[in-house]
Amino acid sequence: MIPSRFEYVAAGSAAEAVDLLRRHGDDAKLLAGGHSLLPMMKVRLAAPSVLVDIGAIPALSYVRVEDGQLAIGAATTHQAVSTSPVVRAQAPLLAWSAGLVGDPQVRHRGTIGGSLAHADPAADLPMTLSAVDGRVVVLGPSGQREIGADEFFLGYFETALAPDEIIVEVRMPVRPDQPWGYQKFTRRANDWAIVGVATVGGRVALANMGPAPVRARSTEQAVAGGATATEAARLAAEESDPAEDMHADAPYRRHLARVLTKRALIAAGVPA
Amino acid sequence: MSILGTRVLRTEDPKFLTTGGEYTEDLVDDRLAGAAHVFFVRSPVAHARITGIDLDAARAAPGVVTVFTAADLTDVDPISPLPGYTAGMTATLLASDTVRYVGEPVAMVVVEDPYQGEDVLELVGVDYDPLPAVVDPREAARDETLIFPAAGTNTVISYGEELDEHLFDDCEVVVTRTIRNQRVAPAPMEGRAAAAVWGEDGRLTAWIPNQGAQGSRATLAKMLGLERDRVRVITPDVGGAFGAKFGADPEHALVAWVARAIGRPARWSETRYENLLGMTHGRAQVQTVTIGGRRDGRVLAYRLEVLQDAGAYPRMGAFLPSLTRLMTPGTYDVAKVESVARSVVTNTTPIGAYRGAGRPEATAAVERAMDLFAAEIGMDPAEVRRRNLLAPFAEPHRNGFGALYDTGDFPSALEKALEAAGYDELRKEQAERRARGDVVQLGIGIASYVEITGGGGESGPPNENATIEVHPDGSATILTGASPHGQGHQTAFAMLASEELGIPVEKITLKWGDTDLVPRGGGTGGSRSLQQGGAAVRQASQELLDVARERAADALEADAADLRFDVSRSAFTVAGVAQAAVSLASLASTERLFVHTVFTAPGATFPFGAHVAGAAVDTETGQAVLRRLVAVDDAGTVLNPLLAEGQRHGGIAQGAAQALLEEVVYDADGNPLTASFADYPILSPTEVPSFELVDMATPTTYNPLGVKGIGEAGSIGATPAVQNAVIDAVAHLGVRHIDMPTSPRTVWRAISEEGNRG
Amino acid sequence: MRVEITVNGSGRSDDVEPRLLLVHYLREVCGLRAANVGCDTTSCGACTVLLDGVSVKSCTVLAVQANGRSVTTAEGLSGVDGQLHPVQQAFRQEHGLQCGFCTPGMVMATVGLLAENPDPTEQEVREGLEGNLCRCTGYHNIVRAVLSAAGRLPAAGESSGSSAPGALAAPGALSAPGELSAAGER
User: ipTM of the assembly?
Assistant: First the structure.
């Protein structure tokens, strides 16, 4: 219940945070909202010796539209993302998804950058980033780079971030008029998804069907080829490698993926 | 105007809402100044021999006061088993050579600051030599791997006689099924805790959250090898219990032992992980039900066979099947009924009492059996029940298993519930959905129940004591042997005294839970408090008036027979003489005015009811959602509807939770998979609807209040009603049974298997 | 580390270790023990307080993260004379508490919820409190308390917005709480 001891330093800027991470190496972790990291530290699944706090950097919390892209500061909370009139208008799937993370208290603290960096394949935002064809903007000692969703998530809690890189921004194309669908299958309302599906603009991404968000490419191709939602959804699990746990074995997960994909596609305007 | 039967707001609430309750972890007390903090090393394996414990690093760590293992406990004996259990299944306060469940305490570290505790736990090294773990009670029953070699068996105790192989001979239809009443965790929001200090006189004062300080003291004293009068238990506010905070656990005794060993106060407060592993679990029965009868709906015979998982060390849980047996026939009039039970040990957390403690299991079994029978003969489950319920009885009814139902009208309860639910409309909607082949189907589940509350104990027939004192300032204090932990006794008992004595509820204080103040008492559990504790308060109030009357006669220089007690003025007056009056308060000013009494009931009472649940099942995913729960819970006269409704809501929610969601899960090696609130799915507000409560009150004659016990009723009716509803939703697809919890995967599998059968 | 935090309106300055959880700062350093620790996994919400006016689970916030900010606890809700805040009063009126352990957190979460959504439906109340667990009440009266505090409690006999008796929902249109879905732009 109590984390191991650590040193704490509050960074005043993204550049300063990067510098601190570089200096402390593998022993240091970034702290934003803390609602992915602190729960792990409290049960001692994580024990960094240095925490670099970027939660209080105003310059990392924003929502803007620039050149047809929605740009969101990495330290923007889920609450801010889900209630932002700009996000609701320009990327309603993202607003909806952020509004389902955890519970209200969690959403008041957890950030979009934190959630993506945590890379839990069962979580809402990694799947959503994949569905909206989003990218993370990453700052490291040698400068800034962009990483697309499909290249960013490498495995369970594993991303393409180097230990001294931080996400500073999340970007995605604006889609104000595109229909979308979202399915989050849980046991209780505030649980992680047993299986999740997000779809917009011809992309279909699945949560908890493998070690990273899975793009259901066979389904996407079928839809592009004129298949109905029912037909296309039959292929939803083709690219998946679902784990087994208390809630579901692999066959049930695949079945859920097919059912939920069908429903999400119908909601996104694909004929049933 | 009588206050009884009205919705009096709780007088205890302002504190809870502002500064909060004062739970054991909150205690700030001079006697606990300088307390050290105890942390437990717990076994991470289900069954193993301990081959070594390395404490050197722990001992040397900063902030460590000391460390202890079983080897240090030279002055305490093993825990005495309950009578009747197989000998040799010995439990000790700390494991010495063998651990038998994940979470079993193995060693203790004592630190200055609670933040250091987990740091030091990481430094303790224990070597375990694994033994085969037995997790499934059916496997345990085969006695292939003995959990206590010295006992020679894994069977703790058995109940019942030999089965009659001809029981079902005259039945046209016989259905049999093995079903699970799964293991659940009581999981009160406040876990277990303790604070202890020894006085210079060698007497122990211990604060522990409990359901009866007197029982906790007795258990603590026994564990520590002390005479009872050397132990004082004080009960802080308790954050829920649900049956799992009776008596004392080894950890409570160990904290006290530590305090004596280090010569300083000691404190402990468990994490949720420890709570989900270390607090006793509930239910955990494998049941085989066999039901037979005629095609016209008449049930002729019913048999219940119970295999109780007792967990690693036999506690109350091994005894509970005897209560299941007691209530086997439930509300039904069946000519031939048999019931046998057996409790076995497994390498899991010990089983104890949990809301209903053995009786919900009986109801769940017979209600499933009724639905299985109904499905077999193709009859409406409500109609099958109608044809088999006991008729209303004017004299107490013996149920053939030792229970004497005091009053009851089971058919009316069922009809009221069905009507309130709009049963015919629900069936119509169900039919329409089936005809359309909707993805989401509707199921209606019914449960008729009767249960036993307020039974007696080893000390004799059911009884409780109360002391009531009126003070010169017009206020009053009640001492009770009951022990509230959310039920609202302070308000309820004050209402009873107020009704008799004319003192306002706000001026009446209830005290309990300090064995120096209240040396005897039965605690709060088994839904006993109002019918025994409340009856005692009323009786004490009336006896106090008798004492006061004599004093008033002197004071007013009148005959006692000429005096009237005017409740509205809380004063005695002389009939016909307006000014001659003397208040209770003034009668207390020269000499203390108090009475101590014991109320004894003739026996246990039997509340009853019927629940109807409406569940929606998504047939593509298997997801089941409870949409409606209509409850008739008849516990006799209702003293405070606000409090009674709250008890019903809470019980219904827990009952529904068992049907839909909750289960303590172990893997095949005995590793717990549900040791946090992220994995153990206690309900959040979105999993249940608002409930629909229907009123029905058939008084008992067993106490002057006419009240039975309400605390557990909701959980008894709701579980089978909800389970039956989920199954009913997919019955048209050929599904006859789905074990609890009706998780999406389980429901979907049941649908798929039936679909595959074609 | 030194932290400066305003607690229930009063500024404080304290030395804390970085790993001190906000809930323990409030309980042990400030002596405000209404917030309780009920779990290990940020699930139960018994520790809920307001941080700069929004509800947070203080077991998952470090005291150092609250540096320079303001915290409101249940103790800070009631009036100077002990008068109950309307939310506290509503909980009492509707019997929305039994053992009381979850109550301070539940009350603070409610205050936070109503600040963001002053006029919630029953479903919005249940979803708004999904971060707060209660084992005693079954939530029925907690929901009534919140609706009452919002001025939305239906009169006796009326449904508060949940399904009407005898009917489940429009045919085929049921969306179960566990199946959180959204349909495009609808």
Answer: 0.97
